[in-house]
Amino acid sequence: MATFKKREEIRNGKTYQRWRVRFTDVLGNKKEFSASTKPKAKKKMDEWNEQLNQFKGLANNKAYTVSEWTYTHLLVNKYNKVSAGTFEGYMTIYNNNIKHSKIGKMQLKDVSPIDVQNFLNEYDNLAYSTIKKYYLVLLQAFDSAVNNRLIATNPVKGAIIPNKDKDPKEIEILSRDQQRAYIKALEGELHGNLYLTALFTGMRIGEILALTWKDIDFTKRTIAINQSVRRVRTYASDGTPSDSKTLTTPPKRKSYRTIPLPTFLYDRLEPLKPNDLNKYVFGTTTGNVQSARNVRKYHDRICTNAGLPNFGLHTLRHTYVTRLIEAGESPKTIQDLVGHKDIQTTLNIYGHVLEETKKASADKLDALFNDLT
Q1: Which one of 100, 133, 248, 264 is separated from 70 by 20 to 30 angstroms, measured CA to CA?
Q2: Other C-beta atoms within 10 Å of 359: how many?
Q3: Dihedral sign, CA of 181, 185, 186, 188?
Q4: Thinking of the domain 61-169, which architecture would CATH place it in?
């Protein structure tokens, strides 16, 4: 039997309704989900029970292959428990790297530490951070197998992830001249304000697409970020995916934030403010959420018109942060503005930019010393 309860949450000074459903799943375990509406909460419950039913037969089978168990583990232990984007990342690794691999075809009980090491070594041409993701998916799957008494020990523990000391790939950043050319190419563009918002607020594209007029306080000149548009992929029992577009709340507390609205963006957006504040700021002409695919397509056209190579949309966010660093902004303030979960994330991503800024500061001191002596 399921019980539903409505409650209110306050984020960034705004009140939001949430529905929570508590129930006992088909395996007899107590479970709960929350969603913005009662039907959505019920859908999560139904999907959970459906996935469990699909694997009840497998649950009694001790002769799992690594592929079978990894898939079972992901669907039972990760689906609807992590963000849609995180789960999609897990499934991409499973489908592309584990499902049909040599280790994937092995029985769980037959896998040794050397088999795991050989699997990881096959990807020594990739970045350490990428291989680490493969390692973690396997590590958690085998931990789950140990917890379910399918195997006695976890052979993944102790494996060495290749390329730990390899220099990380530098992020892509626009130079000031490139940024100037990009901005000039936005003149007359139907969605120009969208890209200017990305370039001068550091918001993620999903956050921008989910932005409604009620999220912009034109009196205080602030933007409240409290949701994001994500492509959600669900999976049938045979692994067949189906995609849908949905609004999601940020998975990390730091992603909820209020940021300043630059004056030039205020001047561009305020005259466009409609009576219905629930409308999307950058929605389609029919009032729907803009497609991320179309946003990328328009962006590619802008790059071509600007005489620039096609770069990823996330480069706009990286460029925003870089300009802040160059202006002397502190890493802590940058962390708060862009919604990183901790300051170490900011330092890891933009460490090389910070180092270059330090060198530039030293050069200025040298010039000052030479001028004074």
Answers
A1: 248
A2: 10
A3: positive
A4: Orthogonal Bundle (1.10)
Distance CA 47, CA 24 (A): 14
**What pLDDT is recorded for position 332?**
87
Alpha carbon distance 177, 107 (integer Å): 56
Give residue 359's pLDDT: 62
Model-level pTM? 0.61
On the 0-12 / 13-18 / 19+ scale of CB atoms within 10 A, 73 is buried
Instruction: Decide which of 3.40.50.970, 1.10.443.10, 3.40.50.720, 1.10.10.10 is the CATH code for 176-364.
Output: 1.10.443.10
Stretches where the chain sits below pLDDT 50 are 373
